[in-house]
Amino acid sequence: MKRVYNFSAGPAVLPEEVLKEAAAEMLDYKGCGMSVMEMSHRSKMYQQIIDEAEADIRDLLGIPENYKVLFMQGGASLQFAMVPMNFMKNRVADYIITGQWAKKAYAEAKKYGTANAIASSADKTFSYIPDCSDLPVSEDADYVYICENNTIYGTKFKELPNTKGKNLIADVSSCFLSEPMDVTKYAYVYGGVQKNIGPAGVVIGIIRDDMITEDVLPGTPTMCMYKTYADNGSMYNTPPCYGIYICGKVFKWIKAQGGLDAMKKINEEKAAILYDFLDQSKLFRGTVEPASRSLMNVPFVTGNEELDAKFIAESKKAGFENLKGHRTVGGMRASIYNAMPKQGVIDLVAFMDKFEKENA
Ligand SMILES: *Cc1c(COP(=O)(O)O)cnc(C)c1O
User: Fold this and answer.
1) What is the pTM of this model?
2) What are the Cα distances from residue 52, in Å, to 18, 57, 117, 249?
3) Catalytic residue list contains 101
4) What is the pLDDT of residues 225-243, one digit of tens each?
5) 68, 156, 166, 195: the active-site residue
6) Residue with CA nearest ligand 1 atom 8
7) Do 156 and 289 belong together in one domain?
């Protein structure tokens, strides 16, 4: 068996321990004679799996009683529509545009009402997070929306925007469980799990009780109402059973690492190894303003497209997969999510150093 260092932005690396456990339980989950994939979602055994997953994520994030945890499908992209369908009561919402995913969410919201772009970092190819301390928040805005970690551009909000009392809604797909998060700062926060938690197909939402309502935009499908998930323990219909089971295992793995404080410390160490190398390199450079750098996604370039292509090809041969940057940015991007071992980053930097010397 050969495992590579997988720097994919998503679907992304998962903890090896989790994959091994899932493999061991594949044919016979805890003596029940079947796989979790084959199990009724109405069975006691499955109820225990989803209940434990919920209890563990609550524990990890310290989610208060007045927030519900929802397990949904449709990717983060369906949330771009569900957010306005459920929350745009006045048909006005404010968006902070920090990259592709925020832009897509903003475009979707426009289908339902007036979406205002109240800040943007498009002027410098989204290489920074704008100052959000005093934004022109609309008086009748139903919410202020952000994409907290910008997977493609490698930026992260280090401070949440001042929403001037409006509800904050955030897409945390690519920084979910990478560090502690104060859930009470958000009215609704969600993430697709394929970046840092589990297999594609599952989306986890954390919603404050008062945001759960039947009073949604006319025509909203039942399956697109948060209330449907909240009222039915995320099992109005068949949930993505197997995906939730893997998420549950990842929650336990994070707990075993010491929880989110420990995760943050490890992630800071890993990111520092890579950023410190980039900052002293004469060949490679990071594309993001230092104050806005993400701990999870690290884009970098040589400034020469041919050299970039050579680096991507040679790194792949050396066992470093998926370092090619997003098609809209070019260059390289190393996604160093929770499950990327520190050794993977150390080895990558050693490889970059060698490449630099050979191509000086
Ligand atoms: C990947 C990603 C998405 C899109 O996720 P899908 O599950 O493919 O819809 C949205 N937002 C962020 C921040 C992402 O990283």
Assistant:
1) 0.98
2) 16, 9, 39, 10
3) yes
4) 999 999 999 999 999 999 9
5) 195
6) 75
7) no
